[in-house]
Amino acid sequence: MKLITFIAAALLASSACGGSNDYERITNTWTRKGEMRQRYQEALTVAVTFKSLQWREAFARKTAEDRGLEGPALDQQVAKAKADEAGPLEFQMIVVTWDRRENDLDRGKKSVWRVSLLDDQGMEVVLAAINKVKRPDYIIRAEFPEMKNFAVAYVVRFPRDKITDPAKLRMHMSSPRGGVRLVWSGG
Which pLDDT score, from 0 to 100, does residue 167 have? Predict the structure, then answer.
């Protein structure tokens, strides 16, 4: 009887972890990474997660699981995630620069960096907003494992109406020293 109770408890525990594991898998699916080198040093490392509908739903389920929500409360979390999908295209950026003064994306047009999406014709879609995430690093790291020492997290938003096919996103991040291009092809 103890063995059956133990097996049942183990199965329950593993199914409870399913939401977090699913979230990690989906976050990896929608994250793209790039780096730019200058001579012998790394000038930029970036990891960008597109907050697709699939990602938003997985995040809502993880959040609900973390909070112990079930039934209608869980459904409400997922419904809110779907509603958020109707807003601008949103990305989580984790940026590390060799010179910490260059990690200034939140300075807008004064930043060393230019971040844009490219539409189907290769035309730039100018970002709507870029904001530095002000939550503690360990909280960001729990949601986005790419958050390492010396990294800065940003949320970047672009107008949704300028992109006809979100399954074929291309983001370009550049400075006078060079750039990186990140491509999503349907997740």
Answer: 74
pLDDT value, residue 186: 56
Alpha-carbon distance 36 to 174, whole Å? 10
* Whole-number Cα distances in Å, 115 to 20, 53, 85: 30, 22, 21
List of residues 6+ apart from 39 with CB closer than 8 A: none
Mean pLDDT for back-to-back runs of 10 residues, the chain (187 residues): 40 47 93 87 90 94 92 92 91 92 89 89 87 94 91 94 81 90 79
pLDDT at 13 (0 to 100): 40
Residues 77, 64: Cα–Cα separation, whole Å: 7
- Domain total in the chain: 1
What backbone phi and psi angles, to 5 degrees, belong to 63?
Answer: -60, -45
Question: What pLDDT does residue 86 have?
Answer: 87
Q: Which tokens is 7 given?
A: 């097996």
Report if residue 5 sits inside a domain: no
Is 20 among the domain residues? yes
In a domain, 25, yes or no: yes
Domain boundaries, position 179: 16-183
Is 10 domain-assigned? no
CB atoms within 10 A of CB 114: 16
Cα separation, 89 vs 50, whole angstroms: 8
